[in-house]
Amino acid sequence: MTHLTYPSGPLHAVMRATAARYPDKTAITFKDRAITFAEFDRESNRLANGLAAFGLASGDRLALYLPNCPEYELAFYAASKLGAVACPMNSSYRERDIAYQVNDSGATMMVTHASLWPVVEACRAQVPNLARVVVVGERVHDAGGFTVSYDDVIMYAPTRDPDVRVEQSQLAALPYSSGTTGLPKGVMLTHRVLVYNQLQYRDAGGIGESDVYPIFVPLSHIYAVMLMNAALCSGAHHIVMERFDLDTLVDVIQKHRVTVLHLVPPVVLALANAPALDASQFRTVRYALSAAAPLAPDVARR
Protein backbone atom coordinates (compact mmCIF):
# COMPACT_ATOMS: atom_id res chain seq x y z
CA MET A 1 0.00 0.00 0.00
CA THR A 2 1.28 3.45 -0.93
CA HIS A 3 1.61 5.92 1.93
CA LEU A 4 1.20 9.48 0.70
CA THR A 5 2.47 12.60 2.40
CA TYR A 6 -0.11 15.31 1.89
CA PRO A 7 0.88 18.98 1.60
CA SER A 8 -0.65 21.21 4.25
CA GLY A 9 -1.20 24.33 2.14
CA PRO A 10 -3.94 25.43 -0.26
CA LEU A 11 -4.21 24.28 -3.87
CA HIS A 12 -2.30 27.18 -5.41
CA ALA A 13 0.63 26.60 -3.05
CA VAL A 14 1.16 23.15 -4.58
CA MET A 15 1.06 24.64 -8.08
CA ARG A 16 3.43 27.43 -7.03
CA ALA A 17 5.97 24.91 -5.73
CA THR A 18 5.76 23.07 -9.06
CA ALA A 19 6.32 26.33 -10.94
CA ALA A 20 9.42 26.94 -8.84
CA ARG A 21 10.77 23.50 -9.79
CA TYR A 22 9.95 23.74 -13.51
CA PRO A 23 9.68 27.48 -14.29
CA ASP A 24 10.52 27.25 -17.99
CA LYS A 25 8.71 24.00 -18.74
CA THR A 26 5.51 24.22 -20.80
CA ALA A 27 2.48 23.81 -18.57
CA ILE A 28 -0.33 24.46 -21.06
CA THR A 29 -0.64 24.44 -24.81
CA PHE A 30 -3.76 25.93 -26.39
CA LYS A 31 -3.78 26.10 -30.17
CA ASP A 32 -0.54 27.98 -31.01
CA ARG A 33 -0.10 29.41 -27.51
CA ALA A 34 2.27 27.87 -24.97
CA ILE A 35 2.35 28.91 -21.30
CA THR A 36 5.18 27.91 -18.99
CA PHE A 37 4.66 27.10 -15.33
CA ALA A 38 6.30 30.38 -14.30
CA GLU A 39 4.10 32.33 -16.72
CA PHE A 40 0.99 30.60 -15.39
CA ASP A 41 1.93 31.48 -11.81
CA ARG A 42 2.63 35.12 -12.73
CA GLU A 43 -0.51 35.64 -14.82
CA SER A 44 -2.77 34.02 -12.24
CA ASN A 45 -1.19 36.43 -9.72
CA ARG A 46 -1.95 39.36 -12.00
CA LEU A 47 -5.50 38.18 -12.50
CA ALA A 48 -5.98 37.65 -8.76
CA ASN A 49 -4.65 41.12 -7.96
CA GLY A 50 -6.74 42.63 -10.74
CA LEU A 51 -9.92 40.92 -9.56
CA ALA A 52 -9.18 42.05 -6.00
CA ALA A 53 -8.96 45.63 -7.25
CA PHE A 54 -12.49 45.20 -8.64
CA GLY A 55 -13.74 43.93 -5.30
CA LEU A 56 -13.31 40.14 -5.26
CA ALA A 57 -12.32 39.02 -1.76
CA SER A 58 -11.83 35.90 0.32
CA GLY A 59 -15.02 33.87 0.52
CA ASP A 60 -16.63 35.53 -2.51
CA ARG A 61 -17.98 33.35 -5.31
CA LEU A 62 -16.47 33.74 -8.78
CA ALA A 63 -18.59 32.23 -11.56
CA LEU A 64 -16.57 30.72 -14.44
CA TYR A 65 -18.70 30.66 -17.59
CA LEU A 66 -16.13 29.96 -20.28
CA PRO A 67 -15.35 27.52 -23.06
CA ASN A 68 -12.17 25.47 -22.67
CA CYS A 69 -9.30 27.97 -22.72
CA PRO A 70 -6.28 28.89 -20.56
CA GLU A 71 -8.18 31.79 -18.99
CA TYR A 72 -10.51 29.27 -17.36
CA GLU A 73 -7.59 27.69 -15.52
CA LEU A 74 -6.01 31.05 -14.73
CA ALA A 75 -9.28 32.28 -13.22
CA PHE A 76 -9.66 29.08 -11.17
CA TYR A 77 -6.21 29.59 -9.64
CA ALA A 78 -6.67 33.35 -9.26
CA ALA A 79 -9.73 32.60 -7.13
CA SER A 80 -7.68 30.11 -5.12
CA LYS A 81 -4.99 32.72 -4.43
CA LEU A 82 -7.59 35.17 -3.11
CA GLY A 83 -9.43 32.63 -0.98
CA ALA A 84 -12.42 33.12 -3.28
CA VAL A 85 -14.54 30.21 -4.49
CA ALA A 86 -14.52 29.13 -8.14
CA CYS A 87 -18.00 28.24 -9.41
CA PRO A 88 -17.63 26.30 -12.69
CA MET A 89 -20.48 26.66 -15.18
CA ASN A 90 -20.88 24.63 -18.35
CA SER A 91 -20.50 26.77 -21.47
CA SER A 92 -23.62 25.13 -22.92
CA TYR A 93 -25.75 26.75 -20.20
CA ARG A 94 -28.47 29.12 -21.30
CA GLU A 95 -30.15 32.01 -19.48
CA ARG A 96 -32.22 29.98 -17.01
CA ASP A 97 -29.27 27.77 -16.02
CA ILE A 98 -26.97 30.74 -15.54
CA ALA A 99 -29.46 32.69 -13.44
CA TYR A 100 -30.15 29.68 -11.22
CA GLN A 101 -26.50 28.86 -10.52
CA VAL A 102 -25.35 32.46 -10.08
CA ASN A 103 -28.16 33.17 -7.62
CA ASP A 104 -27.92 29.85 -5.78
CA SER A 105 -24.13 30.08 -5.37
CA GLY A 106 -24.19 33.75 -4.44
CA ALA A 107 -21.65 34.66 -7.13
CA THR A 108 -20.84 38.37 -7.19
CA MET A 109 -18.42 38.30 -10.12
CA MET A 110 -18.12 36.28 -13.32
CA VAL A 111 -15.44 35.55 -15.89
CA THR A 112 -16.90 34.75 -19.31
CA HIS A 113 -15.98 34.84 -22.99
CA ALA A 114 -17.10 37.40 -25.55
CA SER A 115 -18.83 34.62 -27.51
CA LEU A 116 -21.02 33.89 -24.45
CA TRP A 117 -21.70 37.49 -23.45
CA PRO A 118 -25.09 37.66 -25.26
CA VAL A 119 -26.37 34.85 -23.03
CA VAL A 120 -25.16 36.61 -19.88
CA GLU A 121 -26.57 39.92 -21.05
CA ALA A 122 -29.97 38.32 -21.67
CA CYS A 123 -30.27 37.20 -18.04
CA ARG A 124 -28.72 40.29 -16.46
CA ALA A 125 -31.95 41.41 -14.81
CA GLN A 126 -32.31 37.98 -13.18
CA VAL A 127 -28.93 38.13 -11.37
CA PRO A 128 -29.11 41.30 -9.24
CA ASN A 129 -26.16 40.34 -7.01
CA LEU A 130 -23.76 39.85 -9.91
CA ALA A 131 -21.78 43.08 -9.74
CA ARG A 132 -19.15 42.63 -12.45
CA VAL A 133 -18.47 40.47 -15.49
CA VAL A 134 -14.91 40.05 -16.81
CA VAL A 135 -14.93 39.28 -20.53
CA VAL A 136 -12.18 37.30 -22.27
CA GLY A 137 -11.63 38.01 -25.97
CA GLU A 138 -13.13 40.83 -27.99
CA ARG A 139 -14.54 43.85 -26.20
CA VAL A 140 -18.30 43.82 -25.84
CA HIS A 141 -20.75 46.70 -25.94
CA ASP A 142 -22.04 47.49 -22.47
CA ALA A 143 -23.28 50.98 -21.74
CA GLY A 144 -23.73 50.42 -18.01
CA GLY A 145 -20.19 49.55 -16.97
CA PHE A 146 -21.26 46.04 -15.97
CA THR A 147 -18.38 44.47 -17.89
CA VAL A 148 -14.62 44.90 -17.95
CA SER A 149 -12.24 43.24 -20.38
CA TYR A 150 -9.89 40.55 -19.14
CA ASP A 151 -6.96 42.42 -20.68
CA ASP A 152 -7.84 45.56 -18.73
CA VAL A 153 -8.07 43.61 -15.47
CA ILE A 154 -4.54 42.24 -15.78
CA MET A 155 -2.90 45.14 -17.67
CA TYR A 156 -1.56 47.05 -14.67
CA ALA A 157 -2.03 44.41 -12.00
CA PRO A 158 1.16 43.42 -10.15
CA THR A 159 2.69 39.97 -10.57
CA ARG A 160 3.42 39.56 -6.86
CA ASP A 161 1.60 36.94 -4.81
CA PRO A 162 -1.64 38.31 -3.35
CA ASP A 163 -1.27 39.09 0.34
CA VAL A 164 -4.07 36.75 1.40
CA ARG A 165 -3.84 33.89 3.87
CA VAL A 166 -5.78 30.88 2.60
CA GLU A 167 -6.37 27.86 4.83
CA GLN A 168 -6.71 24.32 3.54
CA SER A 169 -10.09 24.07 5.27
CA GLN A 170 -11.53 26.94 3.20
CA LEU A 171 -13.92 26.34 0.33
CA ALA A 172 -12.07 26.34 -3.00
CA ALA A 173 -14.68 25.33 -5.57
CA LEU A 174 -18.43 24.98 -5.87
CA PRO A 175 -19.23 22.86 -8.93
CA TYR A 176 -22.86 21.88 -9.46
CA SER A 177 -24.31 18.41 -9.83
CA SER A 178 -26.09 17.44 -13.04
CA GLY A 179 -29.49 17.68 -11.39
CA THR A 180 -30.76 14.26 -12.51
CA THR A 181 -33.04 13.94 -9.46
CA GLY A 182 -33.97 17.59 -9.06
CA LEU A 183 -32.35 20.97 -9.36
CA PRO A 184 -28.52 20.96 -9.56
CA LYS A 185 -26.85 21.31 -6.18
CA GLY A 186 -23.56 22.95 -5.29
CA VAL A 187 -20.87 20.49 -4.19
CA MET A 188 -18.62 22.10 -1.58
CA LEU A 189 -14.96 21.28 -2.26
CA THR A 190 -12.30 22.60 0.10
CA HIS A 191 -8.66 23.17 -0.74
CA ARG A 192 -7.87 20.02 1.21
CA VAL A 193 -10.20 17.97 -1.00
CA LEU A 194 -8.64 19.29 -4.23
CA VAL A 195 -5.06 18.94 -2.97
CA TYR A 196 -5.64 15.37 -1.80
CA ASN A 197 -7.59 14.45 -4.93
CA GLN A 198 -4.90 15.52 -7.39
CA LEU A 199 -2.16 13.84 -5.35
CA GLN A 200 -4.09 10.57 -5.08
CA TYR A 201 -4.74 10.56 -8.82
CA ARG A 202 -1.11 11.36 -9.61
CA ASP A 203 0.00 8.47 -7.42
CA ALA A 204 -2.55 6.01 -8.83
CA GLY A 205 -1.84 6.98 -12.43
CA GLY A 206 1.87 7.51 -12.08
CA ILE A 207 1.49 11.06 -13.42
CA GLY A 208 4.73 13.04 -13.36
CA GLU A 209 6.65 15.84 -15.01
CA SER A 210 7.45 13.76 -18.10
CA ASP A 211 3.79 13.16 -18.93
CA VAL A 212 1.78 14.90 -21.64
CA TYR A 213 -1.97 14.68 -22.01
CA PRO A 214 -4.87 16.50 -23.68
CA ILE A 215 -7.98 17.76 -21.90
CA PHE A 216 -11.02 17.96 -24.16
CA VAL A 217 -13.83 17.34 -21.66
CA PRO A 218 -15.37 20.63 -20.44
CA LEU A 219 -13.19 22.28 -17.81
CA SER A 220 -16.39 22.88 -15.84
CA HIS A 221 -16.68 19.11 -15.25
CA ILE A 222 -15.07 17.69 -12.11
CA TYR A 223 -13.19 15.13 -14.26
CA ALA A 224 -11.41 17.97 -16.05
CA VAL A 225 -10.81 19.85 -12.78
CA MET A 226 -8.94 16.80 -11.46
CA LEU A 227 -6.88 16.53 -14.66
CA MET A 228 -6.09 20.26 -14.66
CA ASN A 229 -4.93 20.19 -11.04
CA ALA A 230 -2.93 16.99 -11.49
CA ALA A 231 -1.01 18.50 -14.40
CA LEU A 232 -0.40 21.91 -12.83
CA CYS A 233 0.69 20.36 -9.53
CA SER A 234 2.93 17.61 -10.98
CA GLY A 235 4.79 19.38 -13.78
CA ALA A 236 2.99 17.47 -16.53
CA HIS A 237 2.24 19.25 -19.81
CA HIS A 238 -1.42 19.38 -20.81
CA ILE A 239 -2.99 20.45 -24.07
CA VAL A 240 -6.32 22.25 -23.74
CA MET A 241 -8.71 21.39 -26.57
CA GLU A 242 -11.87 23.40 -27.15
CA ARG A 243 -13.86 20.20 -27.58
CA PHE A 244 -13.46 16.61 -28.70
CA ASP A 245 -12.70 16.14 -32.37
CA LEU A 246 -11.27 12.81 -33.49
CA ASP A 247 -8.89 14.13 -36.14
CA THR A 248 -7.66 16.92 -33.86
CA LEU A 249 -7.10 14.47 -31.00
CA VAL A 250 -5.02 12.16 -33.19
CA ASP A 251 -2.98 15.14 -34.42
CA VAL A 252 -2.40 16.29 -30.83
CA ILE A 253 -1.28 12.80 -29.79
CA GLN A 254 1.30 12.66 -32.54
CA LYS A 255 2.47 16.29 -32.44
CA HIS A 256 2.94 16.45 -28.67
CA ARG A 257 3.88 12.81 -28.09
CA VAL A 258 1.02 12.28 -25.66
CA THR A 259 1.71 9.72 -22.94
CA VAL A 260 -1.70 9.40 -21.25
CA LEU A 261 -5.25 9.61 -22.59
CA HIS A 262 -8.19 10.55 -20.38
CA LEU A 263 -11.33 9.49 -22.19
CA VAL A 264 -15.07 9.07 -21.78
CA PRO A 265 -17.04 6.10 -23.20
CA PRO A 266 -18.38 7.89 -26.33
CA VAL A 267 -14.81 8.86 -27.26
CA VAL A 268 -13.57 5.30 -26.70
CA LEU A 269 -16.35 4.12 -29.03
CA ALA A 270 -15.38 6.72 -31.64
CA LEU A 271 -11.76 5.54 -31.50
CA ALA A 272 -12.81 1.89 -31.72
CA ASN A 273 -15.01 2.57 -34.76
CA ALA A 274 -12.54 4.78 -36.65
CA PRO A 275 -11.40 2.68 -39.63
CA ALA A 276 -8.37 4.78 -40.57
CA LEU A 277 -6.62 4.64 -37.19
CA ASP A 278 -3.47 2.61 -36.73
CA ALA A 279 -1.76 1.49 -33.53
CA SER A 280 1.42 3.28 -34.62
CA GLN A 281 -0.39 6.61 -34.17
CA PHE A 282 -0.62 5.87 -30.43
CA ARG A 283 2.89 4.53 -29.88
CA THR A 284 3.77 7.19 -27.27
CA VAL A 285 0.64 6.50 -25.18
CA ARG A 286 1.43 4.32 -22.17
CA TYR A 287 -2.16 3.99 -20.97
CA ALA A 288 -5.69 5.28 -21.49
CA LEU A 289 -8.29 5.85 -18.79
CA SER A 290 -12.03 5.97 -19.40
CA ALA A 291 -14.14 7.66 -16.73
CA ALA A 292 -17.34 9.62 -16.00
CA ALA A 293 -19.64 6.76 -17.12
CA PRO A 294 -19.58 2.94 -17.44
CA LEU A 295 -17.60 1.54 -20.38
CA ALA A 296 -19.03 -1.53 -22.11
CA PRO A 297 -16.51 -4.43 -21.94
CA ASP A 298 -16.78 -5.19 -25.67
CA VAL A 299 -15.92 -1.57 -26.52
CA ALA A 300 -12.94 -1.65 -24.14
CA ARG A 301 -11.62 -4.83 -25.78
CA ARG A 302 -11.85 -3.31 -29.24
Describe how the helices and strands are arranged.
Blueprint: H1 11-21, E1 26-30, E2 33-36, H2 37-53, E3 61-65, H3 70-82, E4 85-89, H4 95-105, E5 107-113, H5 117-122, E6 132-136, E7 147-149, H6 150-155, E8 171-173, E9 189-190, H7 191-205, E10 212-215, H8 222-234, E11 237-240, H9 246-256, E12 260-263, H10 265-273, E13 287-290, H11 297-301
Parallel strand pairs: 1-11, 3-4, 3-5, 5-6, 6-7, 10-11, 12-13
Antiparallel strand pairs: 1-2, 8-9
Helix pairs in contact: 1-2, 1-8, 2-3, 7-8
List keywords for this structure.
11 helices; Rossmann fold; 13 strands; alpha/beta; 5-stranded parallel beta sheet; 302 residues
What does this structure look like?
Helix content is 39%, strand content 18%. The mean pLDDT is 93. It is built from eleven helices and 13 strands. It has a five-stranded parallel beta sheet, with helices on both faces. Strands 2-1-11-10 form a four-stranded mixed beta sheet, sandwiched between helices. With 302 residues, it is an alpha/beta fold. The chain folds into two domains: 181 residues, 3-Layer(aba) Sandwich (Rossmann fold); 58 residues.
